Amino acid sequence: MTALVLDGGIALLTIGIAAWTIRAGDDFAAVVGFIAYGLVLTLAWTRLGAYDVALTEAAIGGGATGVILMRAGARVKPAPASRPSRLARIIVGALSAAVAAGLAAVVLLPPQPAPSLALDVREHLASTGLGNPIGGVLMAYRAADTFLETVVVLLALFGVWSLGRDAHWGGRPGPAPRPGIGGPLPLFARILVPAGIVIGIYIVWVGADAPGGKFQGATILAAMAILAGMAGLVAAPATSGRRLRWLLAAGPIVFVGIGLAGIPLAGAFLAYPPGFEKPLILVIEVALTVSLAAMLALIVAGPPERSP
Amino acid sequence: MSLAPFDAATLFGLMGAILVGLGLYGVVLLESFLRRLLAFNLLGGGVFILFGVVARRGAGAGFSGDPVPQALVITGIVVAFCATALAITLIERLGEEDGDDASGGGS
Lengths: 308, 107
Fold this sequence. Notes:
Chain A has eleven helices and two strands. Chain A has 308 residues and is mostly helical.
């Protein structure tokens, strides 16, 4: 009963924040509302027992998306407010409510028994050498999804870079660093970044057997790079740098290399030869973590704004 | 077909349905691109939660939820982040171009 009251409170809070984000007076307030939405949604994920998803939502859905939105909220000029007519609001409101009601009906009248692949996942999990079933799905059963996902991240980075001005192609993202940033930020970064790097690596490592994984860990590592950049401890790299580009490509190259080697050795693309599952998955995870952390940090940093 | 028991999964399922409705309303009606993008992400959050409810109801074999939909949602959150980042950069650039036009060209 107490649990249901807690869950009800989280659900009402989430809906309230979502409605407030839609109705907020200006863009920046809406961005702040959306970041809060990501955090309460994380609570809902933990209440559903999906800790891996909760970590991802907190790190990427709330955190990384929030940072980019703050950047945009500060830069994008507020659009002139023009209220849609009352008729439009009533029609769209009714249709949206109908969609919500349809989904609610599906929730209230679920198929019996509930469809589930949990037994199949359990049956073969031991052969992957992993203890975390979600890690098993991401790295073995649905490895093709995970491979394409990393390519999507890389393509998004190319897209962001392509939106810079022609004169700045290959240059450094963000405004030029202000010399001698004072105050607490550099001190804060010096203390937090080493601890954050350890936590990020730990989240990747523990993801084999417990909630965690490369995406969550890479996001923490990317956040540390961004913090060090904001504090002026490291300079943003030139996006034309050869070493940087190899760093970005390393993860997908290792992944596709091992995947192609699976065709002669194990009989299928992205299949692992028996007995080598765990070491190969570890090699892919380490390479992907490094590349993903660089990709995510550079996506957040935005398009190049200065000449190289 | 029988009514689902009123547990945490059902409660959050209804929340997800309402979030999808709210997001849809915002995507169609809001004027500013940034606000539409936010509404689209609200909608996405609701869809992901519905996946989470499917996962929770498929709990079995000693897992607290069906791992397959959970893994799909993790992939989905990362892809949604990438699409959002690209869209935000597009909106920023669009704002710059409009600013240039107003001041009669520019860099």
